[in-house]
Design goal:
Elements lengths: L2 E6 L4 E9 L2 E5 L5 H10 L3 E6 L5 H4 L2 H8 L2 E5 L14 H4 L11 E3 L4 E4 L2 E7 L8 E5 L2 E5 L2 E2 L2 E2 L8 H12 L6 E4 L5 E2 H7 L1 H4 L3
Parallel strand pairs: 3-4, 4-5, 5-6, 10-13
Antiparallel strand pairs: 1-2, 2-3, 7-8, 8-9, 9-10, 11-12, 13-14
Helix pairs in contact: 1-3
Length: about 210
């Protein structure tokens, strides 16, 4: 198993489980349906070491605390979105669901340029504000997990606590990367950076 993709929660956010060696995995975003995550871990005999969050909106963090409590996994989020783990008002749960949000009781904050070493994975944090103030992309080898910053053919909204000017700077930053990456977004389908540089109108202007 190298990666399992799950679609979780009411808004269908992607959750990625990545192998980090010795039957251990990390999760990127857990946007709800925690039982689905826990069932996969049990069925595949996997231990969850860490939960990495691309940003703090409810549809990407709704299942985090249940899974954290069940597994003991460390939770990581950019410092500017940390408040969203504690408050259903801050993470827009009150707009997006009728469910009661379960705040995350324990987490660690990360910053741009941090390198996380978890199992056999080396994970680079790239701060890409715009969708939220603390949105990040995680770069692992030739893979980039870009949350709701960049989608296949589109980008994330900036009217849910984000900023248009910040988004433009983040897209410019991504467009400046010389290496091609497999892109895994917070919703919808995977792509590659080369394809998005060529076809995505929001990214193409910075190439």
């Amino acid at each position: 198993m190298e990666m399992i993709t799950l679609v979780l929660g009411e808004l269908g956010a992607n959750c990625y489980l990545l192998d980090c060696g010795n039957h251990e995995v990390i999760a990127i975003d857990i946007g709800g349906t925690p039982k689905k995550v826990l069932n996969i871990l049990k069925t595949e005999n996997l231990n969850l070491k860490a939960i990495l969050l691309t940003h703090g909106h409810y549809d990407h963090v709704a299942g985090v605390e249940s899974v954290r409590q069940a597994t003991g996994a460390e939770v990581y989020i950019h410092e500017k979105d940390a408040i969203m783990l504690e408050s259903g008002e801050a993470n827009l749960a009150y707009q997006l669901t009728s469910e009661v949000y379960q705040p995350v009781q324990k987490y660690q904050v990360i910053q741009d340029g941090d390198i996380l070493k978890i199992g056999n994975l080396e994970i680079r944090v790239m701060h890409t504000p715009g969708h939220t103030a603390g949105s990040v992309c995680y770069i692992i080898g030739n893979q980039m997990f870009c949350g709701d910053t960049l989608f296949q053919g589109s980008i994330g909204r900036t009217d849910l606590g984000g900023n248009v000017a910040d988004m433009r700077e983040s897209l410019k930053k991504i467009a400046s990367l010389q290496q091609d990456y497999q892109l895994y977004a917070g919703h919808f389908f995977p792509s590659t950076l080369a394809i998005e540089k060529k076809n995505n109108p929001y990214l193409r202007e910075f190439v």
